[in-house]
Write a structure and sequence with these properties.
Distance between the termini: 63 Å
Protein name: Membrane or secreted protein
CATH superfamily of the largest domain: Glycosidases
Strand order of the largest sheet: 13-14-15-16-17-19-20-26-24
CATH class of the largest domain: Alpha Beta
CATH architecture of the largest domain: Alpha-Beta Barrel
Largest sheet: 9 strands, mixed
InterPro entries: GH
Structural class: alpha+beta
Number of domains: 4
Number of strands: 53
Length: 841
């Protein structure tokens, strides 16, 4: 716990600590410098986070201590929270003492002690359920709809009472009323308002501003202009100093991990009303952002770059997953960010924070893909990597081949994987901070493994990721430490002793002092580095209750080729053996023992002489002292046992090198499709239709009409295949029809990994037809940005500036569009197509 000794010192401060100047720039009152803060939302004091900690029998304040420490470890300095007012107020709007209020106080104080600045949104209309059902709460807003809160006099009076008491509430951990805390640098009146009347909106905002100011709050007041942006003029006419926005560039709740290059989705943050006169003098903040359902680690820095180009001065990710819940990712399963369980994404956020602080207000690095390398940052989609390379900082999300910029000036290293400065065999993050010449602080996090897709439906009964305190090897190659240095454990309970040989040593999670031979350093337990105590460490362990095997078999392998099989395995006990097992006769098996090659990774090569027939079918058997477990069914025992009855096996098809490769087959479903939402006011239906004669199914897509905001309907089929064998492909083949319609024009396009899209308009007849499209005839077309971003005024289309030729091996999606090639008079008509298969030939 980071002890709070500062109550008396804080009490001498009072607002005003920030202001917004006439040009709309958010500034510090004392220095007049621009505010520039980057961090996260964190909601454990309320709603599901609060309840889930109770379900698990954990301590809320200990959990908060852990998470605030880790967010500090990531170099963040901004905290935003929307308060579940219904959990801290009564039916009349009085603030009442609840456990949630105490935890809010405690959280604010902990962030304050770590140097964070906070924006609070005091009022959130609605229930407290998600992802559960709503739970009873005493507050007056619990059963309200948002539209009921803006002009009902009785409800407005309750809001006024609530705001006045909330702002005058004294935080017992700081000794300050919220209105007097200089580290609460602004208020956002309410969370995501849903107005339907401009005049009422202006009147409502001014009434709430009036009570906030009369309560004594002096710092700027912000209001959300993105949720219902059509009333932005009315908002800006009110007495507010700033506007709040959110950004979910890949939509929300896809219910599985999205796999593609989504840098085009975050290339620019569009504000269509930027030149509105009343908006020009308003400061801008991003209260929530996240590329939802993403595992990749290069998007956060790109988003930070777009934020600064759009002149945002405060940005907070939504939402940091509490460590105690991260094994299941239940709080908001469409988001997943935690230093221990998503280390590469966490380091990505650290890099994004530096990008945000580096860039000038409004600075631009151009458009994708010309902005992959900008400032000190490099992004690499193929390696899933972000790097930050400055004189003092060397950060990387997934290893780095880049050299340290300045050995003499280097002060901080943070990374996952190996680099030119650190070689590491583990999967978790690590940090090296220079204390003084020849003396560094090392912090090593546990290894992690995702054992299920964390973005699927959430449950505390389901483990999606595990962490394990493994002993790993590390080599530190720093000029400042030379060839000879010692390592001493610092955190409480850490007695691990290691020997350094040729700059290499074994290490377990913990905090350590690395000291060059001959260097002297006087340890001081009270010493801190960037708000981190010298000896601090979150010593968190997870109980693993079953054997997990993470393995995706190859779809196919060519004849006369070995099969390389890889799996990640973790178990409660020490693993004695992992093997690929093939039944080979009555009570006989062929066993191929797998070799451990990483923290959790096991590999084996099956010789081509053992591969016969149309498919290679196999089990994976894990042996511990508790016995053997066989996969994919996860059953006790082994195929060697006389009574082993499991029939399901992993399967890889054996085939000749194909003349063509199927990109989409309706018989295999449509799990990897991206559909638009109803933002465009275009109604559509997608379903499968059966061809009874051939016992096959086809994908039918019908659109009522194209009379929406944009006369276009586009969906995508993601292509997740090895396309290395199609480099010589010459044509795209589509088997499709228009169904009952006589003819249907539709654009089919192939989207490449660099964002470029090549397509053409085809004419579908009513009867199924095989249409052959020469790849050389495909022309550059615009990419439709899917999933649709929120807020809805983000760009609909993206034009890649990549100077590239079409490359069939780089296809990542098939883009289908109703609209291109159609006459305007046809927009009012039904559009329809039925797709059977799509392949390259």
């Amino acid at each position: 716990m980071f002890v709070l000794f500062f109550v008396s010192a804080w009490a001498v401060f009072s607002q005003q600590s920030t202001f917004v100047d006439d040009a709309g720039v958010f500034r510090w009152t004392d220095s007049k410098k621009e505010v520039r803060l980057f961090g996260a939302n964190y909601t454990l004091p309320f709603a599901h986070g609060f309840r889930a900690i109770n379900y698990l029998g954990k301590d809320h304040k200990k959990a908060i201590d852990e998470d605030v420490y880790h967010m500090t470890r990531l170099g963040l300095d901004a905290f935003r929270i929307h308060v579940w007012d219904t959990e801290i107020s009564d039916s009349l709007g009085n603030v009442i003492p609840t456990k949630q209020l105490d935890l809010l106080d405690y959280t604010l104080a902990q962030f304050k002690a770590r140097g964070f600045k906070t924006i609070v949104t005091p009022f959130k209309v609605g229930d407290n359920g998600y992802p559960e059902k709503s739970f009873p709460a005493p507050g007056f807003s619990a059963n309200l709809e948002k539209y009921e809160t803006y002009d009902d006099e009785a409800i407005l009076q309750k809001q006024e009472r609530y705001f006045e008491q909330f702002l005058n509430h004294v935080n017992p951990y700081t000794g300050l009323a919220y209105k007097d805390d200089p580290d609460i640098i602004a208020l956002e009146i309410n969370n995501e308002p849903r107005h339907d009347n401009a005049e009422v909106a202006t009147k409502y905002i001014n009434r709430m501003v009036d009570v906030i100011r009369k309560s004594g709050f002096k710092n700027p007041i912000f209001y959300n202009v993105a949720e219902r942006h059509e009333f932005v003029e009315a908002y800006c006419e009110a007495d507010i100093q700033g506007c709040t926005f959110q950004w979910y560039p890949t939509g929300l709740v896809y219910n599985k991990t999205l796999n593609a290059n989504f840098l085009p989705n975050v290339d620019v943050y569009n504000i269509p009303f930027e030149n509105l006169e009343g908006f020009k003098n308003k400061a801008r903040i991003i209260y929530e952002f996240d590329p939802a359902d993403m595992a990749v680690s290069y998007l956060y820095p790109a988003m930070a770059r777009s934020f600064r180009e759009a002149k945002f001065q405060f940005a907070t990710q939504f939402a940091y997953e509490p460590l105690e819940l991260a094994f299941a990712n239940t709080e908001y399963q469409t988001h997943y960010l935690n230093l221990l369980y998503t280390p590469s994404k966490a380091i990505s956020l650290l890099i994004a924070s530096h990008v945000f602080h580096d860039m000038k207000n409004g600075e631009s690095y151009g458009r994708y893909p010309k902005n992959l390398n900008f400032g000190h940052t490099k992004l690499d989609t193929e390696q899933d990597r972000a790097e930050y390379l400055s004189d003092e900082n060397y950060f990387y999300t997934n290893g780095s081949t880049s050299a340290v910029v300045s050995e003499k000036k280097l002060k901080h290293i943070a990374g996952v994987g190996s680099s030119s400065a650190v070689k590491y065999s583990g999967t978790g993050a690590y940090f090296l901070d220079k204390i003084e010449k020849g003396v560094w602080r090392l912090e090593v996090m546990p290894d992690y493994l995702w054992v299920k897709d964390p973005f699927e439906k959430a449950s505390l009964d389901k483990t999606v990721a595990v962490i394990r305190h493994n002993e790993q090897t590390m080599t530190v190659l720093l000029e400042d430490l030379g060839n000879h240095f010692s390592i001493k454990p610092l955190n409480a309970g850490n007695d691990f002793q290691t020997v350094v040989k040729d700059k290499q040593f074994n290490i377990v999670p913990g905090t350590y002092l690395i000291q060059k031979h001959g260097a002297t350093f006087q340890e001081n337990a009270a010493q801190n580095i960037n708000h981190l105590g010298l000896t601090e460490f979150v010593d968190f362990t997870q109980e693993i209750d079953e054997v997990y095997v993470v393995h995706q078999p190859q779809e196919y392998v060519w004849e006369d080729q070995n099969i390389e099989i890889e799996a990640q395995v973790v178990a409660p006990d020490a693993i004695e053996n992992v093997a690929v097992v093939l039944p080979s006769g009555y009570q006989k098996t062929d066993n191929y023992n797998m070799t451990k090659t990483g923290a959790f990774t096991y590999k084996v090569s099956i010789p081509k002489a053992k591969i016969h027939g149309d498919a290679f079918r196999y089990y994976i058997v894990v042996e511990t002292k508790s016995g053997k477990t066989t996969y994919p069914n996860q059953i006790e025992g082994s195929p060697e046992d006389w009574d082993f009855i499991a029939q399901e096996r992993f399967e890889t098809f054996i085939t000749k090198k194909p003349q063509n490769i199927v990109l989409f087959d309706a018989n295999k479903g449509m799990e990897n499709t991206l559909w638009p939402d109803y933002y465009n006011n275009i109604k559509y239906r997608s379903n499968f239709v059966w061809d009874a004669f051939h016992s096959t199914k086809q994908l039918e897509v019908s659109v009522e009409n194209l009379e929406g905001r944009i006369p276009d309907f586009t969906f995508k089929i993601l292509v997740d295949k090895d396309l290395s064998v199609v480099s010589q492909a010459s044509e795209l083949v589509v088997r499709a029809s228009s169904g009952a319609l006589s003819r249907q024009k539709v654009q089919v396009a192939l989207q490449m990994q660099n964002g470029a899209v090549f397509g053409t308009v085809i004419d579908l007849p009513s009867e199924e037809k095989t249409i052959r499209i020469p790849l050389k005839d495909l022309k550059i077309v615009k990419q439709v940005v899917l999933p649709r971003a929120y807020p809805v005024f983000q760009p609909y289309r993206f034009q890649s500036e990549a100077k590239t030729d079409f490359d069939a091996t780089k296809i990542e999606a098939i883009q289908w569009s109703f609209g291109p090639g159609l006459h305007k008079n046809d927009h009012q008509k039904e559009q329809k197509m039925i797709i059977d298969k799509i392949f390259l030939n």
